[in-house]
Amino acid sequence: MSVPRTASVVIIGGGVVGCSIAYHLAGRGLRDVVVIEREAVGSGTTSKAAGGIRAQFPTEAEVRFSLESIAVFERFEEEFGVDPGYKKIGYLFLVSDPADLKGFEERMALQRRCGVDVRVIAPDEAQRLVPALRVDDLVAAVWGPDDGLAGPAEVTNAFARRARGLGARIVEGVTVTGIATAGGRVTGVTTTNGAIAAPIVVNAAGPAAARVGRMAGAEVPVHPRRRHIFYTEPFPEIPGPVPLTTDRASGFYFRKEMEQVLLSPGDVQDIGEDVEVPMDWSMVEEAVTKAVHRVPLLEQAKIAGGWAGLRPLTPDDHAIIGWAPEVEGFFLAVGFGGHGFQHSPATGRHVAAWLVEGKPAADLSLFDPGRFARGAAKAHDEGPDAE
Ligand SMILES: Cc1cc2nc3c(=O)[nH]c(=O)nc-3n(C[C@H](O)[C@H](O)[C@H](O)COP(=O)(O)OP(=O)(O)OC[C@H]3O[C@@H](n4cnc5c(N)ncnc54)[C@H](O)[C@@H]3O)c2cc1C
Fold it and tell me: Domain check: are 13 and 77 in the same one?
């Protein structure tokens, strides 16, 4: 596919984040917005997401991103003319350790101040929500009834279609091979189909964010980690809907997907930045052991398949949103870990507002790209690693 010679903004990556940014930029009337996607829209790690959406985050900035995004998912069909499959199935965290519960209670106080409905419930109440659960080793559960899920493919394609309708160019099958700079400023990109001159380049490359950062001489601490998800054959013995239920002690999570049960061992594996993410089928055993411990009935279910994807994590588990400190004109929207899909509506809106108006419309300092070099990033936050 041919690429234009000039652009106002080049976005590298046509995942849910890049497409949301393109939609919001074009929606603000910015012309000549170009997205370069090396494969197809939404084919990156977005295609591996479980679709989970929660407001249970450890910081105010992230809770506000969630609430803003949930409001978009609620009226998505109205705004985009597409049913995103949004359902409020709730998120249920099963807690066995009193110290872990204390951490939840501290975070819940913040979440409640922001208007989130989240409660501690007793183990037998958790069992009333999901009768198949084993609860005798739990101290409590944390229940967010307004959390839910939607379809990552539907949402990404809706952003892309609308962005195109508003005049953005989304070029698929073309790879960005270099970022041109002069005098410490970005001047454009080189691609497998020619060069594009542009004053602003956005890195929205998901798990490839660090590699794309190096093209501009910027250090971007995004470390992709592999996670597996498996699904069973149809299993009516556990009727749906089932909240996205996470066993905090083991990291295992599950929910119902149509007639099947979707389950993950909650693994966090370093396999490098590879585009192809191989499955490790030996993970089935770990997933099944954790599953049967928490949901004994699952012993009768048969695993029908699975997939693995890379979660683009950062050292403190918060995304990186803002100008790269090393080079002018290079904007980062990366490091969304296990929550890039659910935060994509707010991310797109805030990034577009920042690029068009010259300053962020809210306090986004939590996501400041400079925090790592300054030593200001806190160590890994113990907030829920739910997806
Ligand atoms: C198993 C699993 C479960 C998950 N579950 C959830 C969940 O329940 N909820 C949730 O919110 N999130 C979930 N996530 C996380 C979510 O998938 C990501 O945070 C999100 O998809 C990131 O979107 P992105 O647009 O940044 O990345 P991507 O979708 O990877 O998009 C980046 C794009 O950049 C392209 N690209 C890279 N380099 C170049 C280049 N040089 N030139 C051109 N194009 C390039 C890639 O092809 C890719 O399409 C999950 C992730 C995994 C792996």
Answer: yes
120, 248 in Cβ contact below 8 A? no
Strand order in the sheet with 223-232: 119-121, 140-144, 91-95, 244-247, 253-257, 260-264, 223-232, 303-313
Report the nearest-CA residue for atom 6 of ligand 1. 49
* Among candidate residues 131, 205, 207, the one with its CA nearest the CA of residue 175: 205
Do 125 and 151 lie in one domain? The reply is: no
Q: Are residues 230 and 216 part of one domain?
A: no
- The residue whose CB lies within 8 Å of the most ligand 1 atoms, and thus the one to mutate among 11, 23, 46, is 46
Domain that holds residue 27: 1-86+147-222+314-387
Distance 246 CA to ligand 1 centre (A): 22
Domain's final residue, options 283, 309, 335: 309
Same domain, 1 and 72: yes
Nearest CA to ligand 1 atom 52: 49
Residue 204 Cα: closest atom of ligand 1? 26
User: Length of the chain in residues, anyone?
Assistant: 387
Q: Do both 69 and 151 map to the same domain?
A: yes
Can you tell me the distance from the alpha carbon of 144 to that of 88, in angstroms, rounded to the nearest whole number? 10
**160 and 81 together in one domain:** yes
Contact 368, 319 (CB under 8 A): no
When divided into structural domains, the chain yields a total of 2
Q: Report the Cα 269 to chain-centroid distance in Å.
A: 17
Which CATH number fits the domain that encloses residue 273?
3.30.9.10
Q: Spell out the per-residue pLDDT of the chain, length 387, in tens.
A: 789 999 999 999 999 999 999 999 999 999 999 999 999 999 999 999 999 999 999 999 999 999 999 999 999 999 999 999 999 999 999 999 999 999 999 999 999 999 999 999 999 999 999 999 999 999 999 999 999 999 999 999 999 999 999 999 999 999 999 999 999 999 999 999 999 999 999 999 999 999 999 999 999 999 999 999 999 999 999 999 999 999 999 999 999 989 999 999 999 999 887 678 999 999 999 999 999 999 999 999 999 999 999 999 999 999 999 999 999 999 999 999 999 999 999 999 999 999 999 999 899 999 999 999 998 887 766 666 778
Nearest residue (CA) to ligand 1, atom 10: 339
